[in-house]
Amino acid sequence: MRSTWRRIATSAVASAAACAAVSAGQAAHAAESFWPTKSCTKGGFTGYVRVAHVGTMVTAVQYKIFKGSNSGGNNANVDWVDGGIAPSKHFSTDSGIQDNAWHTLSNVDYYRGSGGTSMKFVFDKSGATDPSCTITSVL
What we know:
Elements: H1 2-23, E1 33-34, E2 38-42, E3 45-54, E4 57-66, E5 76-82, E6 89-96, E7 103-106, E8 110-111, E9 117-122, E10 132-136
Antiparallel strand pairs: 1-3, 2-3, 3-4, 4-7, 4-8, 5-6, 5-9, 9-10
């Protein structure tokens, strides 16, 4: 019984460390790497996306938003679509943080084949129309 609890506790600590690593922009899986970072710019804002993977398994989708000299809160819309799997994967938030740091949109592991990908950003700009841009063919 004691060894069972030790295994559960060790597994829980390892899982927490993996989640913390992904949130900090580090690889959570041993052989994990990132596909090249892509970006788009509109109205002085720049949105970035990077995708962590092990082979054809996507392990995390991350974004960061640089707001430049714009004022605005942390309510950007960030929308990921991966058509390389059926049905397509879709992850989004309407409270995207605009602090020029990496944030994890999803850390759900899935395998993908060929197919299009996109990341859309609708930036949160105070007192004006929110600018938007889309990155296609992320992978």
